[in-house]
Amino acid sequence: MLDAALPGLGNQANHKKILKLCKTALVRFAQVKAGEVTLLIFKNFPAFTRIRKKIMQITRATTVNVSADKVWKILGTDFNNISEWASVVLDSEAIPDMPTGSGRICNVKGIGNTLEKLTSFDDDQRKFSFTFENSKIPFFVRKIENTWSVTPKGSDQATVQVNADVNLMPVFRQLMGGMMSRQLGKGAESLLGELKHFAENDKPKA
């Protein structure tokens, strides 16, 4: 549900500001690709900005003081019931008219219905990944994929980790990367905190 952190970047006013910034900067770039390295030349920017990864990655983790099995039941087994513990999700259910296990549809504060389609789900490894579909996600975001995992730490503790892989349009990685990284990081921390509270107290965080 990290997409809930993005609607402020996606409104029309901000679109105009971003496009104006691009125009003002006279973004004229030549791409010279060597493996995963792309060199971009910007007028009014440093001569060369080196991009080592095409995908922006955000990772957060927390320790939950219950067994990995209990956390996994909340997070993985009951995947469609995220609205029981995540305050940003008003309600959630399995995607209608699709095979069981395809994903969920969530009514998210600020952006409305969001399709979250599973791309992988490993019950044994306690790990899953999914992508977002929502018309209010900013136009320059090509794709977001979240991966959640639960790792045992003894019999009564578990580490929960969330990774967000964000694919942005060229240029916007430089212009918006820092802001998006901070917003998505805060969103991940908030969700992890609510999951931890729910698992340890058997009730949502107030």
Q: How would you concisely characterize the structure shown here?
A:
With 206 residues, the chain is of the alpha+beta class. Helices cover 26% and strands 35% of the residues. It is globular.
Please describe what this structure looks like.
This protein is α+β, with helices and mostly antiparallel strands and about 210 residues long. It has a single domain, classed as START domain (Alpha-D-Glucose-1,6-Bisphosphate, Chain A, domain 4), CATH 3.30.530. The chain is about 25% helix and about 35% strand. It has three helices and ten strands, in the order αββββαββββββα. Strands 4-10-9-8-7-6-5 form a seven-stranded antiparallel β-sheet.
Distance between the termini: 19 Å
Mean pLDDT: 81
Characterize the main sheet.
7 strands, antiparallel
Give the strand order of the largest sheet, numbering strands 1, 2, ... along the chain: 4-10-9-8-7-6-5
CATH class: Alpha Beta
CATH superfamily assignment? START domain
Q: Tally the helices.
A: 3
Regions with little confidence, pLDDT below 50 for 5+ residues: 22-52
Task: Indicate the topology.
Elements: H1 12-24, E1 32-34, E2 37-40, E3 49-51, E4 55-64, H2 68-77, E5 89-94, E6 103-108, E7 112-122, E8 127-133, E9 141-152, E10 158-168, H3 172-201
Antiparallel strand pairs: 1-2, 2-3, 4-10, 5-6, 6-7, 7-8, 8-9, 9-10
Keywords, separated by commas or semicolons:
alpha+beta; 3 helices; 35% strand; 206 residues; Alpha-D-Glucose-1,6-Bisphosphate, Chain A, domain 4
